[in-house]
Write a structure and sequence with these properties.
The chain is of the alpha/beta class and about 450 residues long. Helices cover about 45% and strands about 15% of the residues. The structure holds guanosine-5'-diphosphate.
Length: about 450
């Protein structure tokens, strides 16, 4: 294996910057850099050293160097970490020196890939490190740590064992008997398959909450001009982010903002009013709004309680019928309780039997804002979100779990139709392979390359 090098800390000015080397030549390269051919560092001990240009012997920096002898390192290979002062120019120069004297630049995720190849961790654990680094909330980070510590693999192992047991029963029936499985054995196999499928489905079902923790929800705020979308947006963010004006049609562009409610990342998109328009700029905004609604996890429809529902309001209410939505009745500060009730009555008539959550509030005074935040999280706060359980948060893992379920389902169906064991087994082997791909046991080189390309260089 050739020796790779990369900056392990972000590029930019900082107190320290860490350069990491991994591979057989790591120690030799370190010796060249410190200008001492017999430097024999004790593993895992930090040394203060002068780092020099190997050609001119000029001092480049004073750095703390640490050597990790294989296999006791992150990658399982010889690793050297050089903690220099965090100057981008200096770090660049040092990396260039490493490249000149035998290292090559690491590719995205290559350190983790080597750790995987050397059995230091499995695939799900390597992905967890990436997720931990990318985590946007403490809750997401906590989940990633659980996965990094092997929790996912522990949950999957008994399921894989069970599936393998069932495969063995069917395989041996193939070998020894010409007739069907004995009735008792057949029912053991069938029950076992159903139980295995259910266990996998249960883990897969946590993905909804897991994805939420990881990616957050996309909330789109829609409504005709002047109902108070921008004001609501600002009230939620506690700043004057969107432009608020009294002239209809001013929010031409979309504004994105990220914040978190109960540790769940929320990205808010304020869309241009959805009214039909001849203004080109505005009509582009309208088009975009329609797309945003289609992509959102939750749509917030804002209506103005101080005015009667207009044709435009009705169009918007109808066009969002099939989405997960909340209706905000804004500007309640402008009217009496009686008038508000009257308005809510007319809104209910308009909704015609559909009963999405309706939240009266005032973006101006902040009245009702808490109820609104609560309602926003409600569709996404199942018991899985208690954070006690492990959650699947990676789309790749979810996809593999679903595929494994489908394969087992098909096998059960074939089994019930008295198909030969040979045919039933195909799906079960596929399912086992899919489960193995989660932790990387049955992952092909191609897939690994694809997965690790989502890592940054230096990881
Ligand atoms: P948008 O076009 O839907 O984004 O609406 P804006 O947020 O720009 O608000 C339009 C007008 O309504 C502005 O003059 C706001 O000050 C006013 N407004 C918004 N929300 C409220 C509210 O809750 N109460 C009152 N009284 N006025 C509001």
């Amino acid at each position: 294996m050739n020796t790779i090098v990369a900056l392990a800390t972000p590029l930019g000015r900082s107190g320290i910057g860490v350069i990491r080397l991994s591979g057989d030549e790591s120690l030799t390269i370190l010796r060249r850099l410190v200008g001492d051919n017999v430097f024999d560092p004790e593993p895992r001990v930090a040394y203060l050293k002068q780092v020099r240009d190997p050609e001119s012997s000029e001092i480049i920096d004073e750095a703390i160097v640490t050597y990790f002898r294989k296999p006791h390192s992150f990658t399982g290979e010889d690793v050297v970490e050089i903690s220099c002062h965090g100057s981008p120019v200096l770090l660049r120069q040092l990396i260039d020196e490493c490249l000149r004297i035998g290292a090559r630049m690491a590719e995205a995720g290559e350190f983790s890939l080597r750790a995987l190849a050397n059995g230091q961790m499995n695939l799900a654990e390597a992905e967890a490190i990436r997720d931990l680094i990318d985590a946007q909330t403490t809750a997401a980070a906590r989940q990633a740590i659980r996965q990094m510590r092997g929790e996912f693999s522990h949950q999957l192992q008994p399921i894989k064992d069970q599936l393998l047991d069932l495969i063995v029963i069917l395989e041996s029936a193939l070998e020894f008997v010409e007739d069907d499985l004995p009735a008792a054995e057949a029912s053991t196999v069938r029950n076992g398959l159903v139980a295995t499928r259910d266990s996998i489905a249960k883990i897969a079902a946590t993905y909804k909450a897991g994805r939420l923790l990881r990616e957050g929800i996309r909330v789109a705020i829609v409504g005709r001009p002047n109902v108070g979308k921008s004001s609501l947006f600002n009230a939620l963010l506690g700043s004057d982010r969107a432009i608020v004006t009294e002239i209809a049609g001013t929010t031409r562009d979309q504004l994105h903002e990220k914040f978190s409610i109960n540790n769940i990342p929320v990205s808010l998109i304020d869309t241009a009013g959805l009214r039909e328009t001849t203004d080109t700029v505005e009509s582009i905004g309208v088009e975009r709004s329609k797309r945003t609604i289609a992509d959102a996890d939750l749509v917030v429809v804002v209506v103005d309680a101080s005015e009667k529902l207009t044709v435009e309001d009705r169009t918007i209410l109808h066009s969002t019928e099939r989405t997960e939505r909340i209706i905000v009745v804004n500007k309640t500060d402008k009217l009496s309780e009686n008038d508000l009730q009257r308005f809510l009555g007319s809104l209910r008539t308009e909704l015609d039997g559909d009963s999405p959550p309706v939240i009266p509030l005032s973006a101006k005074t902040g009245d009702g804002l808490e109820d609104f935040q609560h309602a926003m999280m409600k569709p996404f706060s199942g018991p899985e979100l208690s954070l006690n359980g492990f959650l699947v948060s990676d789309a790749r893992h979810f996809d593999l779990l679903v595929r494994a379920c489908d394969e087992i389902d098909q096998s059960i169906e074939l089994f019930d139709r008295n198909a030969s064991e040979e045919i039933v087994l195909i799906g079960l082997h596929n399912a086992l392979r899919y489960l193995g791909q989660i932790t990387g046991e049955t992952t092909t080189e191609d897939m690994l390359t694809r997965i690790f390309s989502t890592f940054c260089i230096g990881k």
